[in-house]
Structures are given as C-alpha cells and as structure tokens.
Amino acid sequence: MILGTALMGLGLAILLLDIYRANPQSTILPVLSLMAFPRWLRAALFAALGMACLVIGVVRFNRALLAPYMRPGKPVVQAVAHHRKIGRGPRVVAVGGGTGLATLLRGLKHHTANLTAIVSVADDGGSSGKLRRSLGMLPPGDLRNCLAALSDDEDLLTQLFQYRFVELDGLEGHPFGNLLIAALSGVTGSFDRGVMEAGRVLAIHGQVLPSTLANVSLLADKTPVLDAQAIRIEGESRIPSIPGRIRTVHLEPDRPPAFPEAIRALLAAELIVLGPGSLYTSVMPNLLIPDIAHAIRSSRAFKVYVCNIATQPGETDGYDSRQHLAAIDEHVGRRLADLMLVNDRIDNQRYPRVPFVGPTQEGITTIPTYSTDLIDDQRPWRHDSTKLAETLVRLLEERTGPLELSQSERAEPAPGRN
Questions:
Q1: pLDDT at 65
Q2: How confident is the model at residue 211 (pLDDT cuts 50, 70, 90)?
Q3: Is residue 308 part of a domain?
C-alpha cells in the first residue's frame, strides 16, 4: 500500500510539474503549490496532509468492515477481540428442535462461532405444517427459530425474519422467515441450500442443518389409561394433544438417511449437546435416525444431555430426570451421552404452577449427573440461555482445558490432568 501510494504520488507530481512549467504566468498555481513557503516546509505540509487522509481512510474502511459486529459504545478493539475469540471457540453441535434449542444457541453464540444446530424436521403443525402440505417441502419452523437465535437478536432483519402475518388472507399465521426459506428453496432448487442462503442473509454465527432431507412423520404409541392397549398417533402436533402415557415413538419411513453435513459436524465436534427441548417431539426424532445416533456414539466429543426444567403435558407428565434419560436409553441404547445436566432449583413456593422435573436420587442413573441453577427467572419453565451456555462451557473446560488456548494446545493433556 505504501509503495503503491508513493508511485501514484510520483506520477501525479510529474504531471503537475509539467502543467506548472507550461503555465509560468499563472497566478493560481503558485498559491496552490504554496510557493510562499520554503521548499522543506511545503514538502512537510503536503506529506502530513497525505498521511492524514490515509489514516482517516483506513479507519473508516475498517469501521465499515466491522459494522456487523459493532455495538453502540463498544470500542473497535473490543469488537475485534471478541470476534477473534469466538472464532477460535470450540466446535459445538447442538441436537434438538423447538424453543429449547433456540434458547441454547442464543447463549452459546457468545462463546463460539463454530456452532452447528442439527434440527428435527418432523414438525407438521402451524405454518410449517401448512407449507409442508401445500408445497411438499420440509417444515422450516424449527430451523427458522435456530437461524434467528444465531443472528443478531436486535437486528431489524432478524425481527423481520420472525414477523408473523396476522390479518392477511392466505398468509395468516405464517412467519416471514418460513416464506423466505420456502422461496429460497425454490430458487436454489433444494431445501438445504435454501436454509443455508437464509443463514447468509442473517449473517448467523454458525450453521443450521436438518437432521435428514427425508419427508418423515413422527408416530407415537400411547396408552390412555394404565394397562390399556396402546393406540398409535401419527403427527408430531397431535401427540401431546391426546391424553395418555407415551410408550414408544418412531419415524415413518423407518431408518431415514441422515443429512451428510450433519454427520460430518458430529464427528468433528468437541462438544455435543442433546436438548433441551420436547423429549419425544423435538429431541427424539433426531436420535431415531440411525446414522445420527451412530455418529454421536462414534464421536470423540464430550456429550451432554440437557434435561428439561419442566414436564410437558401429553408427553412427560410426572417425569423426573431419570425417566427422561431412561426414555432415551430405551429408544437408542444406553450411554449415548457422557453426562446429564439437570436444574436443581425447584422453587415450588415462588413458582407454584410450574411442573418442575423432579430430582433424581444420586447413583441410580446410567450416566453421571451434574446439577445447578438453570432457571430463567422471567420464564421459570425454560432455561436461562446465559446460565446454560456458561455451565456447558465450564464443563467442557474442565475436560479439555481453557478455551482461550488454541485447539491444538487444548488437545495436549495438561500436567497432572487425567
């Protein structure tokens, strides 16, 4: 840059010198060239002016490049440092769906940009169900929520992405983001490309992937009363609405192929998080894909199952954390995760109407359990995104070392660490 600027200045000086010599009688040129000052002072003034222009230009150019990462009152240096820090963060894969997965991603994006969300595509209710039936596409709702969670929550484009039409015939109930993903899928020719392009539009921190591109439906066998014969319910949206206890869930068609990018992300991950989210209708549909479950088992990542804070009507009524884990064990086998993360703040006096997941006696689960306060005080039936993300990062650091180190440095065992 310096050499190029100097050569441009030299070429311009030669041109100006020719113009000056060709017009010796001009009264304007001596003023513009500061002939009244000594030669050394003229050179210093022009050099200082040129340097000032370069500095201002570089600063404004950098500010333009950093504009997507800036916040009011946040210094440029701090913004650059934060961006570089999360760029070196651990490779984290979150598996689930619904609002629980979006809550997790909203907290984790402040710790790492190497985030992958693997999302269930079994949804058949609401706007997603309408688009699925009318256009024959995969349901975009849960993927839309994850895309919004990984973007700037305060950005106008993100608010537009989540905007839901209310009083328009034909569009009532549809979020704009669902329609955008449907349009991008049509333009690009595939659903996964449409989701990827939507992520680029929102400039998300990470990537959002469907667990499969197969058009799957979720089926559940439920017993309305104790010891009664099970009835089969088809459709994710219908499962919680019919009373009874869930015995098993499975996908139709059985054994759908996993999305290849999701498998690659799982095998390369340093941390895999299962949940939070509806146990049978958000988390389980991903794990019922054989390739997904096999990739999780084969991965060398630290695997954590995040148990829900509250039970869900029609799905997990009366469940404690052990029963949540037992449901996963029964469907995909034991020890899929290395640790179960459980909320231990059961505040029935302050929140008497919240059906908290009951505590489990220590030592009777198939994997170790870690308990801490994870409640969102504004919505006590949900996880606090900051508390949840900080707890997961702390648990990962206990196994791998400080995340400020490079990935190669974290891979080397610290002295005295088993």
A1: 74
A2: very high
A3: yes
> What pLDDT shows up at residue 358?
73
Q: Using CA atoms, how far apart are residues 367 and 289, in angstroms rounded to an integer? A: 22
Helix (H, G, I), strand (E, B) or coil at 60: helix
Spatial contact of 252 and 239, defined as CB atoms under 8 Å apart: no
Tokens of 98: 């619904």
HSE-CB of 332 using CA atoms within 13 angstroms? 26
Helix axes 141-149, 191-202, angle to 10 degrees: 30
Report the 10 Å Cβ neighbour count for 261: 15
Mean pLDDT on 219-236:
86
- AA letter at 48: A
In the three-class reduction of DSSP (H, G, I as helix; E, B as strand; rest coil), residue 94 is classed as strand
Our count of domains for the chain comes to: 1
- Rounded Cα–Cα distance for residues 56 and 48 (Å): 12
Which range marks the domain in which residue 385 is found? 76-111+267-404
- Looking at residue 418, what is its pLDDT? 36
Give this prediction's pTM.
0.80
Instruction: Answer yes or no: are the C-beta atoms of 395 and 304 closer than 8 Å.
Output: yes
CATH number where 370 lies = 3.40.50.10680
Model confidence band, residue 119 (pLDDT cutoffs 50, 70, 90): very high
Q: How many CA atoms lie within 13 A of 139 on its CB side?
A: 26
